[in-house]
Amino acid sequence: MDGAALLGTPKPAPRAGAVVRPKRQGTSAWPLIDRIGYWLCWATGIALCLIVLWIVVYMMIKGIGYLRPALFVEHPAASLQQSKSGGFLDPIEGTLIITAIGTLIAAPTGIGIAVWLSEYARPAPLARAVESAVDVIAGVPSVVLAIFGLLVFSESFLGFLSEHAANGTVYGRSFFAAGIVMALLALPLIVGSTREALSQVPDRVREASYALGKSRASTIRCVLLPSIRPDVASGIALGMGRIIGDTAIITILLGQTLTTQAVGGTPVLGLLRGTGSTLTSYVFYNSPAGEGNSPQKAYAAAFVLLVIVLLLNALVTALTGGRRLDRLGIGARLSLIGRSFPWIP
Amino acid sequence: MDSLMPPPVRRISVDREPSVIPAPAVSENDSRGAVQPSARRLLTRSDPAVVRERMRIESVWLAYGENWVVRDVTLPVRQGEVLALIGASGSGKTTLLRSLNRLTEVTAGGARAGRITLDGQEIHELEVNHLRRRVSMVFQQPNPFPMSIYDNVAYALAEQRPPRGRRRRRTPALEAAVEDALRRAGLYDEVAGDLTRSAQRLSGGQQQRLCIARALAAEPEVLLLDEPCSALDPISTATIEELIVGLRESVAIVIVTHNLQQAFRVADHVAFMHLGELVEYGSSEQVFDRPSQQRTRDYISGAFG
Questions:
Q1: Interface confidence (ipTM) of the complex
Q2: Contact residues, chain A, for B101 at CB < 8 Å
Q3: How many CB atoms within 10 Å of residue B249?
Q4: Is B231 an 8 Å CB contact of chain A?
């Protein structure tokens, strides 16, 4: 249409001096109770920032002081002398393996459960049951999950997931066992954030897709899931954080061997059936409460743990991206990550 | 039922500001009031040679749960002309429209009695996704998918197995079909520069035309429009109205509108519904100039609604 002709040429903008901008509104006119509330909100926010900053800075000072390149390449060794107890190569490995197993299991199942709950949920009693099951898992302490896991993975029919003793007893402790139970830990977080995001998608988006003759499944796959990707990503990041940080499951289900002990000769499978440790169990072991009792190693490992968590969060957020990343491919996203950490060459 | 109505509040011509220039398009907010003699019909009479019946609504009752919202409506839907459904809020016109591609089934408790046929076939016996490809719909709120302009249309074109990933495969045939759909919706020239732009960055009017392009992409036989202009400004409205009239020979069009001027401008036939019942059906000249029912007369003169 002739929209431009109808609207005509725009007038020139006013002088800069003539522009009135809204002033920030003060709270002086508010009732006292609201002002107190406002300042409390403000103060708690600042306090939280300070606490986080304190943790990071403290761990950095403590950790960097004891951090040596050798720690990253040496295997840990059982010794009460800090100079002889080696590095934490194996715990780092263990943390990465456990996180990978847990996330690889929890992410697809969690997304699947969330999609079923929010898009299908028939029959209704089953949906309610699934819903409360997720809630129960979210509420169960991880140490209870770990004990339960030990019980289950010691069953002989699950023997292929861990080591057999000579008399046929199943050991029940392995990367598989710990990783699978870890997935339970991450699951509720992923289900929760995916469901929440799906419920935020207005029904008219679904109807628009149905009206084009699209099935429910293809609507979910092509329209709903791509549009909630950032929320799913943050759910996965939360879940990963939970997995990396958990100690109870590692202590009980990963066998508490200082170094990674593979079972049998099969390269990958043998490793996953084997036992080992992670950074959390390493920190615990080396803390004054543990057997190793070498606090310097504990501080250094704790710092590395913190850095890994922060990096993973940044990586997941950047890879799966907010809206501004919508049109970028994986390559562009990776370079963007590079640019957000300029100190990494 | 009339006794339950509040006393008619008529607009008295003295209160009306004298209009000096006949407005090219009347804004949505001003839709109440009588149809002005100055309102211009966008179309000449439809060509009887191309008019043929595509859908038939026969004694249809529609309910949500126990609540019957459409009562015994019989209407023909013809290709080659535009059918407008008018009536107050809650008169059941949107529900009737949604029943034509079985979207009422998506709402829990949706139920129907009576027959709706597409080319003589009961629509309930057709596969639902296949039916919706033949009877497509555009909604009141522009609702492009959160993807690029190109992908929005390509998604509609793809069969049940759409290409994987964010970057859809661009075959020449697909690109031509997307371009054709965008052209038919009168959007192509405005967006041709960058089809990979996010559809959600378009203006409201462009978004709605994208939705029309999307609906047209699969070559539907019937196009349902649910107040397609009520969220748009007069200029976008005029664009879309011209588009609707231009499309009527290739696709049967049913439009629900609250805007009587719009119904008068675009429709060949008008059906006036009230409280779920079809009060009057006829050519738009007949319904607007010589309504046979008192309720129609009251509604189009702005006495209630």
A1: 0.77
A2: 211
A3: 15
A4: no
